[in-house]
Every structure is written in C-alpha cells, then in structure tokens.
Amino acid sequence: MVIELMKSHASVRDYKDKQLTREEVSELIEAAQHAATSHFVQAYSIVWVKDPEKRKALGELSRNPQQMEGAGAVFLMCADYNRLKHAGKLQGESIVFDQAENLIVAVTDVGLLAQNLALAAESKGYGICYIGGVRNNMEAVSELVGLPDGVFPVYGLTVGVPNEANEVKPRLPVEAILHENQYDEAKYETLLPAYDETMARYYEARSTNQKQATWSEQMAQFLRKPRRQDIKEVLAKKGYHFK
Known about the structure:
This protein is of the alpha+beta class and 243 residues long. 46% of the residues lie in helices and 12% in strands. Strands 1-2-4-3 form a four-stranded antiparallel beta sheet, sandwiched between helices. It comes from Planococcus chinensis.
C-alpha cells in the first residue's frame, strides 16, 4: 500500500476551500519528524503561514499566488541552526555551522522532513506541492516571517484537499538512475532518447496543459544559464560562509 501511494504522487496546485485544523497539522508534522536526521541534529524548522496577508505576500514573492492563497495549509520548510546555537549555549559552547558540510546536513534534513510530511499528507487524502519559488526572494521571505541568523527557507510546501486530480508524470526508467558497482554514462545515449519519447507522448495526451516537449529539451532550457544568483550572498548574511 505504501509503495503504491508513493508511485501515485502528482503535484496538486488547485485546492478546495478547506483549511487544515491545528490538530491535523500537528499530526502530520509529528509523523514527519520521525524522518532520519544526520547525527540527530534535526536542523530544520517549519513556519506555518496562516495570516492571509502574509500568505498573499508569500505568494507574490514566490510567484505562486494561487497556491499560497488557496491551499489548506502553507508551510515554509527551513534549514535551522539557530536552535542548535541555543542548545550549545546550554552547554557553554559556541557551535560552528558555517561550513559547507553543515549546509548539506541541514538541507538534507529538511528534504527528509518535507518528504515525510508530504507522504503523511497524501496518506490522509490530501494533495501537496513543493514551492521552490520561495528562493526567488529568499531574503524578503526571511524578513516576512522573521527568520533569524542560521535559518533560511529551502522551499514552501502547500497541502490541501485536491480540487482536481493530475496525471502521474512518468519518471526516468530505473536503469537510468541505478548504476551497479560503477557509474555508467554510456547508457544515456539510448535511455534518454527513449525517455524523451515517453515524455512527449505524456505531454501531448494529458488532460490539461498539453504541449509538445521532451524531457531533455526542457532540462537543457532550464539549466542553460545560472539561476537565483543571489542565494550565496543571502546565505552568507545568514551565517553560512562555506568554510
């Protein structure tokens, strides 16, 4: 059952007008907290954005107004070493978190927490969508919800009762991501063109937003130039210096 639920995931961007209760949110987050965490640091925090004005502002900053204003719950999934600074103070220690390794740990912790939260929500019949757009204006988003040094938003996560069901996008074949004993890039010459054909058929046949496109075409366009080039500077202001 769990595997089938995982394989049925599709992003939901249109929700019914039903807000999640505190009890429902608490249940989801408590389940999410049981994700693995590096050395048990739990380097994450969640900001539940309930205030309508803040939701509206967050929608504008992330360029996702429909989701931020229409979802049943809006969460900012944040990397957080601020709480660990307080833990250090209890022991008379000044913690070090401005290393690249600690950044990887925090972002990984957030990812595992968020995916557990998403899976818990979907098990209850809710739909979810990750909103990477909060990094379009990371500094302004941080100011909007008062994130202190050591804390930054990694992505948003919207949850709610789906207003419509989206088709599941075909993923890369297992053979494309699974390498046995050593990395094998030669297989991409055949696997990627075949996957492009699969995605082209999917985009042409899906019930909404049909288009003519392939996966490699979209990836080439998406990654042909740098994006969000202010992030390194914003993270430095938060205390992450990549030492």
